[in-house]
């Protein structure tokens, strides 16, 4: 009985210790996001205004955008015409190119992370998975559907050499563009195993309604060999992009619906971790995940998104936590700046 009590006490201590370690790792990621957000200044990147802590969570405050994200755009209109998509995509490329010039790799480009205002102005958001590094990246993260093949097939051998952040972001941007124009995913993402197989075989099905010029543009992006994948300057110089952007300006027509205020505060909470190993992923697992490899534990942090419609990228809209809609914190909820808490814990 005494030994059993000792064992229970030890287990309880270990559980508390593990919880503290997880909380510290999650907070460290939030601090990293804040540092990157504060260092960036670009017309097509959301402006960081500050952060504060309530009794239950840490919040990041950004500029107000009178619009919505590109996923909501697809939900409202099913797809976007090529001229408007080219105009939106050009702005996104400029934002990503600026990030790369600052050695910042976004690593989670997707419809949900791009806001568009009622005046068709694009803002790149959410740097929670971003990394600032002048070298190659040796961790895996992002949303699987948007992940480049070099990330989907990263293993213990190739992880030593790492991957380049630039080409990986270009691939993700290509998936985003395909979804924006067609309203569906370029690859079968019904299961993680099916996605890997589709990406490996490069089985992209281009609809007949898509122009041959855009098909050529996307085929340049969807190349497994990173040495052959085009750079952002090369994409900006492509005829499909230049001609459609010029046509958009000439036509000068509006595409989006009326004003819709986006949340000024984004919840900076991170999700609970999973001890599931990447190498132990089962083909039957149909959960849609954001992957973040933790080198200290040898596991991934997972945020589960269960697909309502596996053929469409819009299933990411299902969230574990409702977005915070408060536009101005009350004096009672604002205890002290988030940096104060960060300084205490690190």
UniProtKB/TrEMBL annotation:
<feature type="region of interest" description="Disordered">
    <location>
        <begin position="304"/>
        <end position="346"/>
    </location>
</feature>
<feature type="region of interest" description="Disordered">
    <location>
        <begin position="267"/>
        <end position="287"/>
    </location>
</feature>
<feature type="compositionally biased region" description="Low complexity">
    <location>
        <begin position="324"/>
        <end position="340"/>
    </location>
</feature>
<dbReference type="GO" id="GO:0004674">
    <property type="term" value="F:protein serine/threonine kinase activity"/>
</dbReference>
<keyword id="KW-0418">Kinase</keyword>
<dbReference type="InterPro" id="IPR011009">
    <property type="entry name" value="Kinase-like_dom_sf"/>
</dbReference>
<feature type="domain" description="Protein kinase">
    <location>
        <begin position="1"/>
        <end position="241"/>
    </location>
</feature>
<dbReference type="GO" id="GO:0005524">
    <property type="term" value="F:ATP binding"/>
</dbReference>
<protein>
    <submittedName>
        <fullName>CAMK/CAMKL protein kinase</fullName>
    </submittedName>
</protein>
<feature type="compositionally biased region" description="Basic residues">
    <location>
        <begin position="314"/>
        <end position="323"/>
    </location>
</feature>
<dbReference type="InterPro" id="IPR000719">
    <property type="entry name" value="Prot_kinase_dom"/>
</dbReference>
<dbReference type="Pfam" id="PF00069">
    <property type="entry name" value="Pkinase"/>
</dbReference>
<dbReference type="GO" id="GO:0035556">
    <property type="term" value="P:intracellular signal transduction"/>
</dbReference>
<dbReference type="GO" id="GO:0005737">
    <property type="term" value="C:cytoplasm"/>
</dbReference>
<dbReference type="InterPro" id="IPR008271">
    <property type="entry name" value="Ser/Thr_kinase_AS"/>
</dbReference>
<keyword id="KW-0547">Nucleotide-binding</keyword>
<keyword id="KW-0808">Transferase</keyword>
<keyword id="KW-0067">ATP-binding</keyword>
């Amino acid at each position: 009985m005494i030994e059993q009590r000792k064992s229970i006490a030890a287990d309880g201590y270990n559980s508390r210790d593990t919880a503290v370690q997880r909380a510290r790792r999650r907070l460290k990621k939030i601090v990293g996001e804040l540092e990157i957000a504060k260092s960036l200044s670009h017309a097509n990147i959301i402006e960081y205004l500050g952060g504060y802590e309530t009794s239950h969570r840490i919040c990041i405050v950004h500029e107000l955008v009178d619009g919505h994200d590109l996923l909501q755009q697809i939900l409202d209109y099913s797809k976007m015409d090529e001229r408007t998509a080219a105009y939106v995509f050009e702005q996104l490329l400029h934002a990503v190119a600026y990030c790369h010039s600052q050695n910042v790799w976004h690593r989670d480009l997707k419809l949900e992370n791009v806001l568009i205002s009622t005046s068709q102005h694009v803002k790149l958001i959410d740097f929670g998975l971003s990394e600032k590094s002048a070298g190659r990246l040796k961790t895996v993260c992002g949303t699987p559907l948007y992940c480049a093949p070099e990330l989907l097939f990263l293993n213990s051998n190739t992880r030593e050499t790492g991957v380049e952040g630039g080409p990986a972001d270009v691939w993700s941007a290509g998936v985003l563009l395909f979804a924006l124009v067609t309203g569906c995913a370029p690859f079968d993402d019904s299961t993680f195993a099916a996605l890997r197989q589709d990406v490996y075989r490069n089985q992209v099905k281009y609809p007949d309604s898509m122009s041959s010029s855009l098909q050529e543009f996307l085929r340049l992006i969807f190349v497994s060999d990173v040495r052959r994948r085009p750079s952002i300057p090369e994409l900006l110089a492509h005829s499909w992009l230049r001609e459609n952007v010029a046509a958009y300006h000439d036509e000068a027509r509006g595409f989006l619906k009326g004003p819709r205020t986006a949340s000024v505060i984004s919840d900076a909470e991170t999700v609970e971790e999973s001890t599931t190993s990447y190498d132990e992923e089962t083909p039957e697992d149909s959960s849609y995940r954001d992957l973040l490899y933790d080198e200290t534990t040898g596991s991934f942090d997972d945020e589960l998104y269960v697909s309502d419609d596996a053929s469409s990228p819009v299933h990411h809209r299902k969230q574990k936590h409702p977005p915070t809609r408060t536009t101005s914190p009350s004096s009672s909820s604002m205890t002290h700046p988030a940096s104060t808490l960060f300084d205490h814990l690190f």
